[in-house]
Design goal:
The structure holds 2 protein chains of 2 kinds. Chain A is built from 9 helices and 10 strands. By secondary structure, chain A is α+β, with helices and mostly antiparallel strands. The two termini of chain A are about 15 Å apart. Chain B folds into 2 domains: about 1-45; about 60-250, Oxidoreductase, molybdopterin-binding domain (Sulfite Oxidase, Chain A, domain 2). Classes of the chains: A alpha+beta, B alpha+beta. At the A-B interface, helix 1, helix 2, helix 6 and helix 8 of A face helix 1, helix 2 and strand 4 of B. Chain B: This is DMSO/TMAO reductase YedYZ molybdopterin-dependent catalytic subunit.
Chain lengths: ~280, ~260
């Protein structure tokens, strides 16, 4: 853009800063990053204590498993595998068998993915439940604040026209071409963002908490309906794992989008609240 | 392009490096007693919250016969190896006596026949291991509350300690001996029983013969097997590691409701 239109003594294109995120959104966002990181890595430590998933009320060694991360010992050479349904995939080096101090070691998730790095279920549980409480308190603050201030209605609820297949289709194509909204359109989340954030906030994160609570015999006594909702403690454990995996995928895509659509601008807006927008002209 | 490339490399490298630092940092933090204490504060919160939500008498789910696990995993000790226990087992536990003492009004001993003569409760419940697996079994036994009514409690009694015959860790001082404890709220809960039967048969050695605890709103490690003695205490001081149980002395929560 070489030509810069002059209008009302304002030069275009020009950069303006808008207030993108409220202080509560920013604080709860980063606390969430902290909590979910610890929850994931300590969760993998807990999973390693019994690296098999089942469906229904009960499930233990010998019962039919939905997923197994295990190891075989082939004449002294350990090999790791993941078995889903009837399919067994070799995963030596990462899952089932991975190096600990340079030696292949039978553990479901590798030491670089667990807190603590060595096998210690008791410690993993301490980290997990501490950050689970912090995560729940943080989440309640965020939900309460967002409902009170209209954050959901104003920023996250998609408008009817945004939900039309044509509009969504165009946004999907734009995202695939890495073309992101500019100018006034960048003032708000696009429809894919709104839908994704809502899915995470309203479905995935509550699902994590509820399936986590359903694994607790104490909570099950207080709220038997939770057990019915998920079809048993072992189903809840499996859903907990699947939902955590979905959250990991979300974070990977989310961080990729942050980087691709303007790393520093995005990160600054989540720290200071200020978000830069390029205005090309009065009519753009 | 080259600056972008190096910036990206810097970002990726920086992120990986920071994660590695954070992870090894966690191991350091994990060993720090103050950090461990902060993390442990969540346990009290969990217990308070669960007790508040449950009330005293909320029952753990009871299942039907058809829900019973086809095989119930034997966990922890599969057979205590002390001479005394082997002798008792060979005699079909006819010489076994359950001692109930400590802060009780009338210390007593019960034979297996005595216990079987008392009103029993049968319950089909889910056993939840701290590791993550579950198994459903049918338990029959004497409500702990009935025993405590027979012995009476001194006003200072606060916890019920179950002393077991199995040694999970071989140590010279005997600190590897299994024991567990619950407070009086769980002790008098209707589903808290001293079970002598599982799935219709006398308790097998693997599952804790002749007597084990069922405290259904807590995890598997609380369900002490091979019970020899029930002691009422006012605190855990002086009991092995002082944390109220074998696994508790090894870092696990005393309140195992989650």
């Amino acid at each position: 853009m070489s030509e810069s239109a002059s209008n009302d003594n304002v030069q275009y294109p020009r950069t303006i800063f808008i207030r993108r995120h409220s202080v509560v959104t920013r604080l709860t966002h980063w606390l969430n990053v902290l909590c979910l990181s610890f929850l994931l890595l300590s969760g993998l430590q807990i999973f390693n204590a019994h690296p098999e998933l089942y469906w229904g009320h009960y499930g233990a060694n010998g019962d039919p498993a939905v997923l197994t991360i295990g190891s075989d010992d082939d004449r002294g050479t350990p090999s790791g595998f993941v078995r889903v349904g009837g399919v067994q995939i070799p995963t030596t080096g990462v899952l089932g068998v991975s190096d600990v101090d340079g030696e292949p070691f039978a553990r479901a998730f590798p030491s670089w993915a667990t807190i603590p790095s060595f096998q210690d279920l008791a410690a993993g549980r301490r980290w997990h439940f501490f950050f689970a409480w912090l995560f729940v308190i943080n989440g309640i603050l965020y939900l309460g604040f967002s409902l009170l201030t209209g954050h959901f209605r104003r920023d996250l609820a998609p408008a009817t026209h945004e939900l039309s297949p044509r509009h969504l289709g165009r946004e999907v194509l734009d995202h695939a071409r890495l073309r992101f909204p500019e100018g006034d359109e960048a003032r708000h989340y696009n429809a894919l963002q709104k839908l994704t954030y809502l899915a995470v906030i309203v479905i995935l994160l509550p699902l994590m908490v509820l399936t986590g609570l359903t694994m607790s015999p104490g909570v099950d006594a207080a709220f038997p309906a939770l057990v019915d909702l998920f079809g048993g403690r072992q189903s809840a454990r499996t859903i907990h794992f699947i939902t955590a995996s979905a959250l990991v995928i979300f974070v990977v895509v989310h961080v990729a989008m942050v980087v691709l659509s303007g790393t520093w601008n995005n990160i600054r807006s989540m720290i200071t609240g200020r978000y830069a927008i390029q205005l090309k002209g009065p009519k753009s | 392009m080259s600056t972008l490339f190096t910036r990206r490399r810097f970002l990726v490298g920086g992120t990986l490096g920071a994660s590695a630092l954070a992870l090894s940092g966690c191991d350091v933090l994990d060993q720090n007693a103050d950090v461990a204490n902060v993390l442990r504060s969540a346990e009290h919160l969990t217990m308070k919250a669960q007790r508040f939500l449950q009330g005293r008498d909320a029952l753990a789910r009871e299942f039907d016969e058809k829900d019973i696990s086809p095989s119930f995993r034997v966990n922890g000790t599969s057979a205590p190896d002390s001479e005394d226990y082997l002798e008792l087992a060979e005699g079909n536990f006819s010489a076994w006596r359950l001692k109930v003492d400590g802060l009780v009004e009338r210390p007593r001993e019960f034979s297996l026949a005595d216990l079987k003569g008392l009103p029993a409760r049968t319950q089909i419940t889910r056993h939840d291991c701290v590791e993550g697996w579950s198994a459903i079994g049918k338990w029959k036994g004497v409500p702990l509350a009935s025993l405590l009514r027979l012995t009476g409690l001194k006003p200072t009694a606060r916890y019920v300690v179950l002393h077991c015959a199995d040694e999970l860790e071989q140590t010279l001082d005997g600190s590897g001996r299994y024991y567990e404890s619950i407070d009086l709220i769980d002790a008098v809960h209707p589903q808290t029983i001293l079970a002598y039967q599982m799935n219709g048969d006398d308790l097998s050695v693997g599952h804790g013969a002749p007597l084990r605890l069922r405290v259904e709103r807590q995890l598997g490690y609380k369900q002490a097997k091979y019970i020899m003695r029930v002691e009422l205490v006012d605190s855990f001081t002086g009991l092995w590691g002082g944390n109220g149980g074998y696994w508790e002395d090894r870092g696990y929560e005393w309140y195992a409701g989650i």
